[in-house]
Amino acid sequence: MKFIDSSTYKELNPEKLVLPFGEFYLTDKFVVAEIYDGEHVDWDKIELLFIKIAPFYKNTSKLAYISHRINDYSVNPQIWSQWEDTFDFIVASAIVIYNSTTLMNASIEKYFANKSLKRCRSLEEGINWVNNLKEFN
């Protein structure tokens, strides 16, 4: 299920950002990312994403990132440490996984992350985890 079809989407009514490689939903506390099938996420795409979302989050000092992996795509796992160093306002990330391949990839990515990165089995679990982070309470 896509985020746009969830009850949480209807409650939060987030800003939607469409980029050539995915759709992103911007809420007060977090971004939900749905990368398109077959994409490869590299540093250029991450930079473009943050350039585009910066105006929305101009006064935000804390933000979480939820990677909602409904499609099959690849990620350079080493970008996690570069991402965390460059965008220090990202306090934590969640990866929502739906199959064993995504679980294995998320486990490798978690190894490279310096900040909290949780692997979740549902979008609801990821959102609940983010909403209960100590950084937001």
Describe what you observe in this structure.
With 137 residues, this protein is of the alpha/beta class. The chain has a single domain (3-136), classed as Transcription Regulator spoIIAA (2-Layer Sandwich), CATH 3.30.750. Helix content is 34%, strand content 28%. It is built from 5 helices and 8 strands, in the order H-E-E-E-E-H-E-E-H-E-H-E-H. The mean pLDDT is 87. It comes from Neotamlana sargassicola. This is STAS/SEC14 domain-containing protein.
List keywords for this structure.
single chain, 137 residues, alpha/beta, Transcription Regulator spoIIAA, 34% helix, 28% strand, STAS/SEC14 domain-containing protein
What is the N-to-C succession of helices and strands? HEEEEHEEHEHEH
Q: Major β-sheet, in short?
A: 6 strands, mixed
> What is the CATH top level name?
Alpha Beta
Query: Residue share in helices?
Result: 25-40%
As a whole number of angstroms, the C-alpha radius of gyration is: 14 Å
Shape: globular
Give the integer mean of the pLDDT values: 87
The percent range for strand residues is 25-35%
Strands across the major sheet, in which order?
1-2-3-5-7-8
Number of strands: 8
* Count of helical regions: 5
Overall structural domain count? 1
Distance between the termini: 28 Å
CATH topology: Transcription Regulator spoIIAA
